[in-house]
Amino acid sequence: MAGRIVVAVDSPEPGARMLEAAARLAVRRRAELMGLYVEERAFLDLAGFPFSKTLRPGGGWEAVDPATMQRAFETRAAELERELARLAERWRLRWRFQADRGVPAECLLASAQEADMLVLARSRSRQAPRAGSTARQALARSRIPVMILDPALSEPERVTAVFEGDERVLAAADDLARAYERPLEVLAVPAAPDDTTRAEAAAAWLHARGWPERVTRCETGRDLGATLAERAGGVTVVGASDDGELATLVDAARGPVLVVR
C-alpha cells in the first residue's frame, strides 16, 4: 500500500482531529498525506456588500470586513498546516498542505485527481452525524474511494465488508483490516430470498486469504441501513451504488465508512 490520501479540514479544533485520524490511516497504508483547507468563496464575496454583518459572541451585530476575513482565513490555514507538520514529524509521514478558495466540493475533487483516497468528516450535527453536502457531492462524483469519518474519532474494533458481489469491496476491507490490525467480517447481502451464493463466495474468499470465515447473511427483506445502524464500533466498507441509496447507507452506519469505486 502507498499512494496519497487527501483529507479535507476546516476549523482548527475539529480539523486537527481529522488530520490526526487521517495521519494514522496514512501511516498504516504507508501513504503520503495531503491536508486541504478550503475557504468558501461565497463568504468573502458576501463580505464585500455594505449590508453584510456578523453576530458577535457577546451579542450585537458588527459590519463584516473583507480584509479581516482574509486574515482569519490565512490564520486558520497556518494553524492547520502547523498541526499537519507536527503530525508528519511525529509519525515520519510524507505530507503536503494546500489552502484554496472556492466551492469546497469542486476544490476537493480537483485536488484529489491524483490521490488514492479522499477522507472527509460527517457534518457536526446536534442530532445524529450525517454526511454533509460536500461529502455527498464527493460520494456522488469521486472516481476514487471516499472515507467518511465521524466527529468522535477512535480506533475501530473491526472492519465489516458489505458484500453484494463486488470483490473490490472485500479487497479494500482486507487492506484496511490488515492496516488497522483488526478482525475482518463480511455482511453478505443475498441477491434473492433463498440465495446463499454470496455468503459462500465470501467465506471462500476469506479462507483463501487466511481470515476466519466470519460471514453473516443479511436478513432477507430487512433494510440494510437498519442492519448497519446496529453494528457500532467498526469501519464499514461498501460498494458505490445509487447516489441516494449510498448516502442513506453512509448516514445509517455507526462509524467510519469507506466507499469503494
TrEMBL record:
<dbReference type="InterPro" id="IPR006016">
    <property type="entry name" value="UspA"/>
</dbReference>
<protein>
    <submittedName>
        <fullName>Universal stress protein family protein</fullName>
    </submittedName>
</protein>
<dbReference type="Pfam" id="PF00582">
    <property type="entry name" value="Usp"/>
</dbReference>
<feature type="domain" description="UspA">
    <location>
        <begin position="1"/>
        <end position="148"/>
    </location>
</feature>
